[in-house]
Specification:
single chain; about 425 residues; mainly alpha; Preprotein translocase SecY subunit; 2 domains; three-stranded antiparallel beta sheet; two-stranded antiparallel ribbon; about 5% strand; SecY/SEC61-alpha; cell membrane; SecY_CS; translocation
């Protein structure tokens, strides 16, 4: 493995790509520590030292931004606006025929969808920036901290802050695209990988200081086992054989080859976890808005939500979280893989699944395999996502427990994808790859 990395750096063009990627990552990490204008950085650090945090979805945003959100830096929004915009554009393909047509047009259509994603990212960034600045002004962003986070809350300063955070998201989006075009791997995925990996040392350090050597060693062992399981499942796929009939075009014989359709066990990736976390935040926000500010007793339904659907260590919350992940896994898999489209393409080019008639029977067979293979994938995703909640109960860890949930799925998935891309480029140059 180390010798393969050495060969990668000895290849001039691959070395330049790797160094360019590392340089962009350094710039991105530096931006997470530059405070936004008008923010009292000293008060922010004192509020964080007191344990101030909003929890819930903002813990996830803070995780994806590499801690920049709770630092209120220029990159405070991180990549979350881009992720949300990408998911929305994918979902709109189901309800807007024009988006589906663009998706089927190839490269030119994909460029148009990418442009729509950029516009939507900027719009969502402005909305998120306004929300976060409002929370910071009221003191609720850092757990009702009494210290002023934004001492000068004039209109001009608020507009400047919104513009700065939105511009920071635009710069992050540009940095990710530069990595994709001139570096190695998917740019936005690598930036998310960097943000999450940067939080691992502090999270493990907190566990070591509060729980001691025994718990720390046990968590490392569990983490190793979970990583092995995630790698195994993420690499697993169901290969459906496809046979293409021979065709005579002039004097040439075309076709007659055998290939396969790879269906991953976890086709949805980490998207169902993000969906489920966001959806479970809505009852808590609704209850917060309906809690009387004059000290009177809140309604019964507000108390029920605050008791059962806000705290991650309650069994009802865990069951709801698990079921939502399973449901969203089926929903997202049905969007990303269209059996009818695959069946029509196979029929158009003379392909068929051995033993299955072309057309409608092939579509039904693909749907049958898709729904069956999604079941273990969704259960696996739900179990991995539950690990931080279980750790919250057993070892009093926080929601960003490093070995489980969204963080580990993204780190392992992006790591595997990046290694495969480096491996493919090494093999193109007649070198032995990273993977054996």
């Amino acid at each position: 493995m180390l010798s393969a990395f050495g060969r990668a750096f000895k290849t001039p063009d691959l070395r330049n790509k790797l160094l360019f990627t590392l340089a962009i990552i350094v710039i991105y990490r530096a931006g997470t520590f530059i405070p936004a204008p008008g923010v009292d950085y000293g008060n922010v650090q004192q509020c964080l030292a007191l344990g101030g945090t909003t929890g819930g979805i903002y813990d996830m945003v803070n995780l994806f931004s590499g801690g920049a959100l709770l630092q209120l830096s220029i990159f405070a929004l991180g990549v979350m606006p881009y992720i949300t915009a990408s998911i929305i554009v994918q979902l709109l393909r189901v309800v807007i025929p024009r988006f589906q047509e663009l998706h089927q047009e190839g490269g030119q259509g994909q460029q148009k969808l990418t442009q729509y994603t950029r516009y939507l990212t900027i719009g969502l960034a402005m909305l998120n920036a306004t929300t976060i600045i409002s929370l910071a002004r009221s003191g609720t962003l850092l757990g009702n901290c009494p210290l002023p986070i934004i001492p000068d809350d004039s209109i001009l300063m608020i507009v400047l802050l919104i513009f700065t955070l939105t511009a920071g998201t635009g710069i992050i989006m540009w940095l990710g695209e530069q990595i994709t075009e001139k570096g190695v791997g998917n740019g936005m995925s690598l930036l998310i990988f960097t943000s999450i990996a940067a939080s691992f040392p502090s999270a493990l350090g907190d566990i070591f200081r509060t729980q001691g050597w025994a718990v720390f060693a046990g968590i490392l062992l569990v983490g190793l086992l979970v990583i092995i399981a995630v790698v195994f499942v993420e690499q697993s796929q169901r290969r459906i054989p496809v046979q293409y009939a021979k065709r005579m075009i002039g004097r040439r014989t075309i076709g007659g080859t055998t290939t396969y359709i790879p269906l991953k066990v976890n086709m949805s990736g980490v998207i169902p976890v993000i969906f489920a976390s966001s959806l479970l935040m809505l009852p808590g926000l609704l209850a917060e808005f309906n809690t009387p500010s004059d000290g009177t007793a809140p309604p019964a339904w507000v108390n029920w939500i605050s008791t059962y659907l806000v705290s991650g260590d309650h069994p009802i919350y865990m069951v709801a979280y698990f079921l939502l992940i399973v449901g969203f896994s089926y929903f997202y898999a049905s969007i990303t893989f269209n059996p009818q489209e695959v069946s029509d393409n196979m029929k158009r080019y003379g392909g068929f699944i051995p033993g299955i008639r072309a057309g409608r029977p092939t579509e039904r067979y693909l749907s049958y395999v898709l729904y069956r293979i999604t079941l273990p994938g969704s259960l696996y995703l739900g179990i991995v996502a539950m690990i931080p909640l279980i750790a919250l109960v057993l070892v009093d860890a926080n929601q960003n427990f490093p070995f489980g949930g969204t963080s580990l799925l993204i780190v392992v998935g992006v790591g595997l994808d990046t290694i495969k891309q480096i491996d493919a480029q090494l093999q193109q140059r007649h070198y032995e790859g990273l993977l054996r």
